[in-house]
Amino acid sequence: MGLAGYGLMGLPSQLGPPQLLGLLVWMAVAVLLHDGVIVPVSTVTGAGLTRVGSGLRPASGAVLRGALMTGAVVTVIAGILLMAQSVARNTSALEGDYAAHLLWFWVVLSGVAAVMVYGIERAGSGRGERKQKTRP
User: Fold this and answer.
1) DSSP H/E element including 10
2) Are 118 and 59 in contact (CB under 8 A)?
3) Per-residue pLDDT of the chain (136 residues; tens, 9 = 90+)
4) b/e string for 106-126 if b means 16 or more Cβ within 10 A?
5) d(CA 57, CA 42)
6) Distance between CA 60 and CA 100 in Å, rounded?
7) How far is it, in rounded angstroms, from Cα 20 to Cα 12?
C-alpha cells in the first residue's frame, strides 16, 4: 500500500496536466468498461453455463468454465493483434496468421474440454454415483 501511495504522489511531478487528464480519462473508461460490459457479460454467461450444465458433475462444470475463460482471454489478445495487424505500417512486425491460429486454438480447446468432460462424466457414472437434481 505504501508503494502505491508513493507512486500516486509522484504522478503530478512526473506527468504534465494533459497526460494526467488522459490518465484519469483512461481509468474512468476502464472502470465503465469493466462494470458496464465485462461484469454483465460474465454474469449472464455464468448463469447460462449453470443452467445448461446443471446435469453435469461439478468438476465438468469447472472444466467448461475454465475452457471458456481461457478462450475468452486468448480471443481478446488475438483480437488486439488482429486490429494491430490491420493498421501496422511495418508488415514484418505482426506477420502471423492470427485469425487461423485463433480458429485452431478454439478447435483444440473445444476438443480437449469435450474429452475431459466426457471422461469426468464417464468415470463418475461407473461408481454408482447419482447426478444431483437441481429442479423437481
Assistant:
1) helix 2-14
2) no
3) 788 888 778 777 888 888 888 888 999 999 999 999 888 988 898 888 778 777 888 888 889 888 988 998 899 899 888 888 888 777 676 777 888 999 999 999 999 999 999 999 888 765 555 555 566 5
4) eeebeeebeebbeebbeebee
5) 21
6) 28
7) 7
